[in-house]
Every structure is written in C-alpha cells, then in structure tokens.
C-alpha cells in the first residue's frame, strides 16, 4: 500500500503526521511511504531520516498524493489539497468535523474516505490512537511554562541569602488529560497546586498527583457522560461553581483553565470580577481558547492584560512543541493505520467501533460531522 505524508501548508502548523520512526515500521511491513520533501523539517525530522527509514520523496504535494492509497497529514486539507487526492484515496488527519460541513461534502464528492483523528473513541482499546489525549498532554505541560514565563513571581519555594520566597499557588480548572498534565508540571516546578473539576473521577486523580481538590461538594455523579466526558452544568450548578471559584481564585498566582464540554462552547467560569479580585501580577492561561475560552476576558490567540492580570489564550499549543507533538501524533496515526490494514491493504470496516467512529466520509457519503 502506498502511504503519502504531506507537508503542512500553514506555516504555523509545525507538526508532521508521520515521523521517521513510524515510517520505518510501515516500510518494514512492506508498505511504500512517499514523503513530500521537507514535510518533517519544521518539527526537526529532516529528509535524511525519512530516507534512512525507507521512504521515497516527492517534490510537491501533487506528486506526493498521486497514486496514494492513504494520505496522512496533520490539519484538514485545503480545497487545493482535496483536488490533489485521487478518487478512492483514504485521508487521515485532524478534520474539525463540526466546522467542516462543506469540506466533508467536497471529500465525499471526490469519493475520498476521510478519517477524523479527533473522533477516535475514548476507549481502552483505542488509547494508543488517541490524538486528543496525546496532544492535550503536550498542551497541559506547555500551559504551565507559558504561565510561569508571564508570572511576576517565581513558582518554587526558595531559601537564599537574599531572602526566602514562598511557593506560588497554581489552580487548575478542568482536570482532564491536559489539566492533569498541568498539575504534574506545576508540581514539578514547585508550585502549591489545587484543582477543580465537576466529574467525580477527577477528584482521586487530582489528589494522586499531590494537588488539593477544591469545592468537592460541587462534584456530581450526574456531571459525567457514559463516555467519561463532562456534561454542561445547569444554571443553578453554574452559579454555585462560580461562587466557589470566586472564593478560591483571589489568592492564586497562576490559573490554568482547561474546562470544556464536547461539541459545546467552553463554559465561562472566570468573570471579569474574579479577574479583578486576583493578585496583581498573576496569570491566567486559558487552554479552552479554541472553543471560546473559560474566562470572559479571553481573546483567543492573544495575550491581554486586565486589572494587572495577564490572560494568555494560545491556539494550537501542540504545534509549539513540534518534535514531541509529532512523535506522539505519529504513533497515534501509525496505530490507526495498523488497525485498518488487513493483508497489506486498507480495509474500511464501518462496523468496527473505531473505524466506524472515525470515518466521516466513505463511498461518496458524508457519514457524520
Ligand atoms: P475535555 O477536554 O473534554 O475537558 C477537560 C476537562 O474539563 C474535563 O475533565 C471536564 O470534566 C472538565 N470540565 C467541563 N466542564 C467543567 C466545568 N464547568 N467546571 C470544571 N471542569 C469542567 O476532556 P478530556 O481531557 O479530553 O477527557 C475527559 C475524560 O475522558 C478523561 O479524564 C477520561 O475520564 C476520559 N478519557 C478516556 C480515555 C480512554 O479511556 N481512552 C482517553 C481520554 C480521556
């Protein structure tokens, strides 16, 4: 089977869908891997490493995509890239399916089978294909570093000849994959960490990382879906959450917010009043910026200062750690490709729990968005 790796066209997207280590596994399994020249360069995977892994090269996207049974990339394709795909090709990438209705129609019309990486089911069997988890891990780690870099205070406790410094207080709101990694990272930097989530399972996970759990009385068994995700809170629950967060947040030096509800705008948990109550020089890093943000003052993609508090709202953080983000993403893509390959060829079994969930277009139809 010929698998092509395209170079991302947005210069801010520095990740690559398959790194040389994964390419080596694919070529060893008898597949032909064609890499668009320079596809891994922005993530520090040079062409020479792909060559050593058994890849061949194409000078541009058109040549790379021609004749491929599978095209792997990171971001959803542009119209120009869709036009390069042969009829019947399979495409594996992040698809943002809920915002891509026209793109999916376009892909279906070209009879492309498109797999949306973000639709991998959150089940144990699919964990090694789970890009949401792998990339959220990167985001949670980097969020703490971004916050620490903006903070007016140091994170660790220090006892020096120039005096003693008390550790910073870090508060993580939303203790899913990104939040738990943020807790671990802030603890490693020496901060005193607390966290809040509405899902009951989060409490023990937070405490096992050495952080304290805030407002445990607000955790509710009904806050979690069968799939382990949070549900949107009722108005009454929102008001009680806001009151608890307002009490806690005013003493914090660094707040990392990661709260989101799949398919919904991020809940607004930090109001301007709460920001104004925080210590001057403190920082909020809003990891929910992609879905609107958890703070009412957040401007996605920007850093703003309000009431002497810096609010950082980065977009696509994983692309800012391109080497390891690509390495992890590539492992997810490789495992998915191995999952859908039978006897050396890609087999689309829509009855399979993983394949069926991720296939957004197949045989000329848009299956889900
Ligand atoms: P997410 O990105 O959808 O949300 C981040 C966190 O925000 C979640 O923990 C959520 O409970 C929390 N949240 C939502 N509304 C909130 C509010 N109003 N206040 C405070 N917190 C709020 O979630 P995620 O990190 O992608 O994953 C969530 C959970 O899914 C995991 O912790 C786990 O239980 C499950 N999961 C399972 C697998 C697997 O089994 N393969 C893989 C990944 C995740």
UniProtKB/TrEMBL annotation:
UniProt keyword terms in alphabetical order: NAD, NADP, Nucleotide-binding, Translocase
The protein's Enzyme Commission number: 7.1.1.1
Database matches in Pfam families: AlaDh_PNT_C, AlaDh_PNT_N
SUPFAM superfamilies per the UniProt record, alphabetical: Formate/glycerate dehydrogenase catalytic domain-like, NAD(P)-binding Rossmann-fold domains
Enzyme class: translocase
Alanine dehydrogenase/pyridine nucleotide transhydrogenase NAD(H)-binding domain location: 148-313
GO biological process, one term: NADPH regeneration
Cited function: The transhydrogenation between NADH and NADP is coupled to respiration and ATP hydrolysis and functions as a proton pump across the membrane.
Protein's name in the database: proton-translocating NAD(P)(+) transhydrogenase
Organism in which the protein naturally occurs: Gemmatirosa kalamazoonensis
